[in-house]
Amino acid sequence: MAIIASNFKTNHTRKSTNDFIENVNNFLLSNDIKEEVYVFPTATSLDYFKTVSNFTLGAQNAYATTNGSFTGEIGTEQLDEFGIKTILIGHSERRHILGESQEEIAKKFSFYSELGYKIIYCIGEPLEVKEQGLEKTLEYVYEQFVGIDTNYENLILAYEPVWAIGTGVTATNTDITSVHSAIKSKIAKPLLYGGSVKVANAHEICALDGVDGALIGTASWKVEDFKQIIENTKDL
Ligand code: PGA
Description:
By secondary structure, this protein is an alpha/beta fold. It has 9 helices and 8 strands. The protein has one domain (about 5-235): Alpha-Beta Barrel (TIM Barrel). It has helices at about 15-30, 75-80, 90-95, 100-115, 125-130, 135-145, 175-185, 200-205, 225-235, and strands at about 5, 35-40, 55, 85-90, 120-125, 155-160, 190-195, 215. Bound molecules: 2-phosphoglycolic acid.
């Protein structure tokens, strides 16, 4: 069974998130879809959604704290209010745009794993590394596991080549399977692929050897497309 996750990034309002969630929930219920589905809205759109019975709501980010003085951040006190126990850690936009270091990421990972959160942990190489070949790519990706307990029971991994994120350029099946099989030979955890997954390619990608599902940005923001992706992958 595929795992399908939507990362809203900095998109949707509180109102449109509400509509999206209700729509997806009704779709899953009425079609009796048992696929594991996650949605990561913006922090301002988190809420205690009574309707969320068939999928999991997660946080795109939070600080490694319960509460305190960390201007602009949220901690577990704010997540607990909405029963959120799932978090994305290590996304390339946090690494490369927001400047999170591996050390900070590892600290965040320890904090949230100690609390038993389900963690979707992202790894992936930038274009200049990919251009140096598979060996260098794997070296780079393995560095992103420094300080991370890969035996953590509530862990899902997501391989997202940076050059494929939000660019419309999907990795080739060979790119995906070579990296996935290498990671899988070292770490026995579900491994999603992310990077320009869309309605047209979701089934093909999720059916590849070593791919357990997809983490989707752009194509998941339109609810009809997200539902279609779920539909297309439900029997895998
Ligand atoms: P994308 O983003 O689907 O827009 O490429 C994927 C991600 O960043 O998780």
